What we know:
Its EC number is 1.8.4.11, 1.8.4.12. Keywords: Multifunctional enzyme, Oxidoreductase, Signal. GO terms for molecular function: L-methionine:thioredoxin-disulfide S-oxidoreductase activity; peptide-methionine (R)-S-oxide reductase activity; peptide-methionine (S)-S-oxide reductase activity. This is Multifunctional fusion protein. By secondary structure, the protein is of the alpha+beta class. It folds into two domains: about 5-200, Peptide methionine sulphoxide reductase MsrA (Peptide Methionine Sulfoxide Reductase, Chain A); about 215-354, Metal Binding Protein, Guanine Nucleotide Exchange Factor, Chain A. The chain is built from ten helices and 17 strands. The strands form four sheets. It has a six-stranded mixed beta sheet. Strands 11-12-16-15-14-13 form a six-stranded antiparallel beta sheet. It has a three-stranded antiparallel beta sheet with strand order 10-9-17, with no helix packed on it. A hairpin with a 5-residue loop joins strand 14 (about 300-305) and strand 15. Helix 4 (about 100-105) crosses helix 5. It starts with a helix and ends in a 17-residue tail after the last strand. Mean pLDDT is about 85; it is low at about 25-30.
Amino acid sequence: MNLDKSAIKTFAAILALSWTLITGVAHAMATDTQKATFAGGCFWCMEHPFESLDGVISVVSGYIGGHQENPTYKEVSAGTTGHAEAVEITFDPEKISYEKLLEVFWRQVDPTDGGGQFVDRGSQYRTGIFYHDESQKKAAIVSKADLEMRRIFGKPVVTEITRATTFYPAEAYHQDYYKENPIRYKFYRSRSGRDTFLDKHWTEDGKSIKQSTWTDEELRKKLTPLQYQVTRKNGTERPFDNAYWDNKHEGIYVDIISGAPLFSSTDKFKSGTGWPSFTRHLDTADIDEVEDNSFFMKRVEVRSAHSDSHLGHLFTDGPPPTGLRYCINSAALRFVPKEDLKKEGYDRYLSLFK
């Protein structure tokens, strides 16, 4: 029998999926295992974080939450079936808890995005927690509430928590895609925007980089009186009498509290106002823009999404190409010169100055 390379590869993938399902069932029969089901955008990126955990028996990519039976990848990706790409995890609760799996889930996604995940748009790429019993439902609600309270992302968490319905395993070539197609997977992952977002919100050991949980007493010790007044009390420093209004050096400006990168000297311009002014910020995930009706004026306040600090205000009288003017207090910022970016861990921004 003659088989081409494509047929052999497909046959091998089918065998691999069959073995995954068989071993998962066999282990479930031998031990008191449980299921956990999460949707986090492209399921290729959701397998590896869970498969690497001690106590996880198997991770299967598939579809859930829709109205069509036995959907195909082509149908789901078209957004017509109501399903979301998801992973179904079989785990041993004696080795790893469902709460731990929830922690890992939150660290893989942008739970504030209701229109998809990163480069993948549409409801088929929505985030979701699909609980299998009431204890999982309660744990998921508590976990989500804790995430919202910590304000890690500075925006509402929109991930839905719903009862698990029928889970349909995806086609064999989608299973363990990161193992079977490592080059294509790495290329997709690096271009998807997922890692860039996650790196800005979580450290390698899974802790939030956001510092808004600092106590008021700790912030008073960390900040100067002016920095505290500006960032925590929505104050404004004096124009033409602050650290960066006339700074012409190359580099980036970071949040004085959390260290999150906010603005670049490449977008700084001389506005004549006496405060640092920028035509844009570095990333939407780091900035919150909220309506400000104080002092009988209607303005747009600019806040740091990481520390919930007051930064300044946004106006529409800036120069091209954006026409915007982010008028920011120097006291809310720390300047990192171009030559120090790598040393301080901001080397990904060196490309701005080439």
